[in-house]
Amino acid sequence: MKAVVVLAFGDVDSARFEEVVDPRPGVGQILVDAKAVDVNFPDILYIEGRYQDRPELPFSPGLGATGRVAEVGAGVEAFSPGQRVLVLPRYGAYAEKVLVAANECFPLPADVPFDIGAALGLVYQTAFFALIDRGKLAAGDVVLVLGASGGVGMAAIQLARAMGARSVIAATRGSDGADFVRKVGADVVVDSSAENLRTRFRAAVLEQSSGHGADVVIDPVGGDVSAAALRVTAWCGRFVVVGFASGDIPKIGANYLLVKNIAATGLQWTDYRDRAPERAHRAQEEIFALWSTGKLRPEITERLPLAEYAAALRKIRGGQAKGKTILLTQHGAN
Ligand SMILES: NC(=O)c1ccc[n+]([C@@H]2O[C@H](COP(=O)([O-])OP(=O)(O)OC[C@H]3O[C@@H](n4cnc5c(N)ncnc54)[C@H](OP(=O)(O)O)[C@@H]3O)[C@@H](O)[C@H]2O)c1
């Protein structure tokens, strides 16, 4: 099979797309013929060796894919060859054949196309647990989503609406982002690239929420916009740290937490997959069910051959990608 292989940590162009030996499933493992591979921001960090999880070299990056089960190892009873699946492994999904542990494998319903299924994996699970488990989202809440045109942002907008938020305010940089986040379901948009961010951002969010502020903030960005968002978190609000796409890990102002009884919390989705796999499975079922009823509509803005993974990652690193990018293998998307 062919796979993207990292031989030494370096920039995204330093990995190779090359022929490697087909893996075989061991005890409790499943081998999947991948069709659609999900591209995610952390893939860059894996290739550069800057992710908290640093695989042994050589390895293939990639956190999600869909396809059909090719072979199961001893002890695997829940999956069988030919079955349609979504896989969310620690890494290794940038490959024509992906080897996963059974808890990293999720049934893909017959009505969900492979490319859509790949897009509905990691970022929707992340947004799901960020909103519901960490953010304690309740019907009628005002939700503020930062980095709203990115993968996690898009998923958070759509899930917040599906879960009964009163209003979803999307913070995005510039007019391209604004058009995109409206298209994927934001009620209102605030510009997070404006001058005097702290003042203007506060005014915009308060105006859009009739002075209430945000009950739940989903923050995959960090940096200045994160600090501005903390200032507009409502009384008893929940501020959920999801990631640092800006490259800047924010310092949370404890004075804001105290004054407005705000809870600041973090979300690491892989911990749910590894420590509470049954919850991750239930969440994925719910996500697919919401898609089937038309409540979730992941926007795949680019579909590229797997060999062009580096171009996809460069665009993400430049902050230019919107929604989801999906890589297709030679097995095709159907
Ligand atoms: N904790 C977890 O379990 C978990 C899971 C998945 C992802 N993450 C993390 O969450 C973050 C976002 O992931 P993602 O999949 O949504 O990534 P993405 O698709 O690349 O989106 C990131 C978004 O952040 C915004 N942004 C603001 N400033 C930026 C800057 N200086 N450079 C790049 N982007 C900037 C952009 O949206 P606007 O233009 O709309 O502002 C961009 O689209 C990443 O840090 C990722 O590692 C965490």
Task: List the defining traits of the structure above.
six-stranded parallel beta sheet; seven-stranded mixed beta sheet; single chain; binds NADP nicotinamide-adenine-dinucleotide phosphate; alpha/beta; 334 residues
Describe this structure in words.
The protein has 334 residues and is α/β, with parallel strands linked by helices. Helices cover 33% and strands 25% of the residues. It has eleven helices and 15 strands. α3 crosses α4, α3 crosses α10 and α6 (197-208) packs across α7 (223-231). The longest helix is centred in the last third of the chain and has 16 residues, at 277-292. It is globular. It binds NADP nicotinamide-adenine-dinucleotide phosphate. NADP nicotinamide-adenine-dinucleotide phosphate (NAP) is lined by residues 40-42, 122-123, 126, 147-153, 172-173, 177, 192, 220-221, 242-246, 267-269, 316, 319, 321.
